[in-house]
Amino acid sequence: MPDAFVLLALLVATLRAATPLLLAGFGELVAERSGVLNLGVEGMMLVGAAAGFIATAATGQPLLGLLVAALAGMLMALLFGLLTLTLGANQVACGLALTIFGIGLSALIGLPWQGTPIAGLASVIWPGLDAAGPVAQQLMLLDPVLWLALLLPALVGAFLYRSRAGLILRAVGESHEAAHALGYGVLRVRYAAVLFGGAMAGLGGAYLSLVYTPMWTENMVAGRGWIALALVVFSAWKPGWLALGALFFGFVTIAQFQAGAFGLEVSPHLLSMLPYLATVVVLVLISRDETRRKLNAPAALGKPFTAAG
Amino acid sequence: MSPTPPRLALTGIVKRYGATLANDEVALSVAPGEIHALLGENGAGKSTLMKIVYGVVAPDAGEIAWDGRPVAIADPNAARRLGIGMVFQHFSLFETLTVAENIALGLGSTRPLEALAAEIRQVAARYGLAVDPGRHVHHLSVGERQRIEILRCLLQQPRLLILDEPTSVLTPQEVEGLFAMLRRLAAEGCSVLYISHKLEEIRALCSAATVLRAGRVAARCDPRAETAESLAEMMIGGRVVRTTRAARQPGPPCLVVDRLTLAPEEPFGTTLRDIALELRAGEILGIAGVAGNGQAELLAALAGERRSAAARIALDGRPVGHLGPAARRARGLAFIPEERLGRGAIADYSLAENALLTRLDARTAPRGLLDPGAVRALATRLIARFGVRAAGIAARGRSLSGGNMQKFIVGREIDAGPRVLLAAHPTWGVDIGAAVAIHQALLDLAAAGAGILVVSEDLDELLGLADRIAVLAGGRLSPPVPVAETGAEAIGLLMGSAPGDAQRMADAAAA
């Protein structure tokens, strides 16, 4: 059944392409639901990708690399939190600065490691990978990080809508004055949400440098952080739509690779543009309903909070 | 001397914001089961004092005693642990959450929402407050939202309930229901601190009152033994001036709205349905109703911020529905919006620049260049003619008190000599003296032949100003009735008949 195998390979490839977006997107979704707009996703992903790669290359332990990547992302997010939450600086400006900082920092620390080969995550977890049959090989490509990314929509959805902590987080994003008046620690909640966003972005970046294309090249996140941000907004801050958007991006990315195989004579630069363009166009079309978007947008998004008195 | 200590006793409370003393050596004592009024004009320091009691703001000096023991209230959680509940003037509810979720947030407990919903229904029934725990807050009327705030407090078995201007958003019938509930609560031993500037309500409800003026305690009294007049004098520290009203002769229609139907722009907005009204020259038409029933949408449509089909709105017989605000102003329509700083004026602009916002014309800017002399003359004239207390025409908008800024905005519009004036909540949040001056200016303008449309939630204001009153409820406008033939009671019934309030009507029928 070659057709079934091709479909399986396509599916696995799509999921792998979507994983970084799912991770970064759901991290940003939680941050934005708490009322913080962090435009530094791309920068946090890059630093996570570089730090995770360096840790893996130095120790040979991709799991340690993933942990380091998440911590690196959190450090970036902590910097953002200090500026925007503690010091009340403008979130848009700080987020843009964080991305530019992340591009530069990741290029700097990654420079000596360019071209260094590492063992991919899958071959470390599954020592028998190379000897396995083609179908088993495909299934083994579904690594734990990918499963985490696939579970995130359900986990984040349950957290936001079923748990008390999620209710408080949504309340803080809806009206920080009211939440403060009720005695909730607005800044504490926002720090937690921003740090979670940083950890997820770092993990998403490391998935690119450790799993998806196991190597480090400068600026290798290639705008996926921005697409994750766009996904969050266009999905109207809904976990289900965000997951669909990320999977769609993954699908178009893979379909674009396959286009060459069908003998399509199009510039590869145009083709690599396609996932970004298609995702934005589709999301804009499904989010045309302005009322629905306004209803779901966290009302306090991007507004700095300072306790009065 | 009573053997039981007061539930709450404040002594020597001081709170300073920059150069202004919001509270200066304030003392206040509330006995168990007492309904105590805190009375004062806007800016007298009532809200600051209550924020101190609720732990939102820390005092610079002073002591708080609870049941005779000195306490420090560090944050709202500490206040709630003591048994203090607070119903805010601007509700602290979350629009996109359900009633039960909102209440769960306020309780700080971890019980499941289903159990909480049952408890909400039980307490609601006990105090005669009808609510559905599963509904989203943005579907609810303002009166229903207030009930949720109150319920949130009641579920914590409060021993002191603070209400900040609770009736400004209620119909007269709802006010009666609120009072009955508060009396029941007080009879059960809960103390109530009732903040208001509505004197008749305080006389009807409260057994003690503390009057604040400019941050200090101006008087303590038993409001039942006072008149509204004497309470007002304690509040403003002088005699209350009354408006004088010249006889007016209504002329031809100057503003006509014909079957205007308009969907809202905002997700929580109200659809205007089949609005028809006719405002005549020299007449004041009042639009009553609880906020959120289409007032903002109607004003936007009349002022030109929302456009409609040309023929739906006519100004002096000419269709203007398709025109924007500037074109309508050029045809003699002036508009006093409800937000003073933000829509009516700009906080960081000087008064001279603020005067220009709606008065940029051939006199102040001939050939497109500003004439500084003419601008100064205009601002100086407005300040003098309407008694605006300000440091001069260079004073920033934010440096003026609410009442003085409002006098300046009202003056700016009246001075333009409009054919039609739209006034939204013209005296909201201004002191009594400024309110009287603004009312007088409106009455004089009508006597001079202009048509005035006043939208207000304050029924007393409309009954005192208007010749006819119509009620806006659920986006529909009732036919106007002459003020001489109606009263607060009849208008209140119309106000409560909004479709969104069907629940309330059903409850009233069942009770």
The class by helix and strand makeup of chain B works out as: alpha/beta
| Most strands sheet of chain A | none
Radius of gyration of chain A: 20 Å
Number of domains of chain B: 2
Order of helices and strands of chain A: HHHHHHHHHHHHHH
Task: Please count the beta strands of chain A (DSSP E, at least 2 residues each).
Answer: 0
Walk me through what this model shows.
The complex is a heterodimer of chains A (309) and B (511). Chain A is mainly α and 309 residues long. Chain A has one domain: ABC transporter involved in vitamin B12 uptake, BtuC (Orthogonal Bundle), CATH 1.10.3470. In chain A, 74% of the residues lie in helices and 0% in strands. Chain A contains 14 helices and no strands. Chain A is globular and about 60 Å long. Chain B contains 17 helices and 21 strands. Chain B folds into 2 domains: 8-236, Rossmann fold (3-Layer(aba) Sandwich); 253-341 and 419-510, P-loop containing nucleotide triphosphate hydrolases (Rossmann fold), CATH 3.40.50.300. In chain B, helix 3 (99-107) runs parallel beside helix 5 (142-154), helix 11 (351-359) runs parallel beside helix 13 and helix 12 packs across helix 13 (402-415). Chain B has helices spanning 46-53, 76-82, 99-107, 113-126, 142-154, 172-187, 199-205, 228-236, 295-303, 325-330, 351-359, 372-385, 402-415, 432-447, 459-465, 488-495, 502-510, and strands at residues 8-17, 20-30, 35-39, 61-66, 69-71, 84-87, 160-164, 191-196, 208-213, 216-221, 253-262, 272-280, 284-288, 313-315, 318-319, 333-336, 420-424, 451-455, 468-473, 476-477, 481-482. Chain B is globular, with a radius of gyration of 24 Å. In chain B, a hairpin with a 2-residue loop joins strand 4 (61-66) and strand 5 (69-71). In chain B, strands 13, 16, 17, 18, 19, 20 and 21 form a 7-stranded mixed β-sheet that branches. In chain B, strands 6-7-8-3-9-10 form a 6-stranded mixed β-sheet, sandwiched between helices. With 511 residues, chain B is α/β, with parallel strands linked by helices. Residues 498-511 of chain B have low confidence and may be disordered. Helix content of chain B is 34%, strand content 23%. The A-B interface holds A 164, 167-168, 170-171, 174-175, 177-184, 291, 294-296, 299, 308-309 and B 51, 56-58, 75-77, 80, 88, 91-97, 101, 104-106, 108, 110, 138, 266-267.
